[in-house]
Amino acid sequence: MNKEIAKQKAKELVAQMTVEEKISQLLYTSAPIERLGIKAYNWWNEGSHGVARSGTATVFPHAIAMAATFNPKLVNKVADVISTEGRVKYNQHVKYNDFDIFKGITFWAPNINIVRDPRWGRGQETFGEDPFLTATLGEEFIKGIQGDGEFYKATACSKHYAVHSGPEKDRHGFDAIASMHDMYETYLPAFEKTVKAGVAGVMGAYNRTNGEPCCAHSYLLGEVLRKDWNFDGYVVSDCGALNDIYEFHKCASTKAEAAAISLKNTCDLNCGQIYEHLVDAYEQDLVTEEEITAAAERLYTIRYLLGEFEENRPYSDIGYDKLDCKEHRELNLKTAQESVVLLQNKSFLPLDKNTDKKIAVVGPNSMSVSALEGNYNAYASEYITVADGMRRVFNNAHITVEKGAHYCHELTNDWGGFGNLISDGVAAAEQADITVLALGLDCSIEGEDTGYDNDYTACGDKKHISLPATQQKLADAVCDVCDNVIVVLMCGSSIDVGEKVRSHAKAIIHAWYPGSLGGLSVANLIAGEFSPSGKLPVTIYNSKHNLPDFKDYDMRGRTYRYIDGDALYPFGFGLSYTSFDYSDAKLTEESDEALKISVDVENTGAMDGIDKVQVYAKYKDSRIHTPHFQLCGIKSVELKKGEKATVTVDIDRYWIKAVTEDGKRVTPDGEITLYIGNHQPDNVSNTLTGTQCLTIKLQ
Question: For a 10 Å CB count at each end of the chain, is N or C smaller?
Answer without folding.
Answer: C
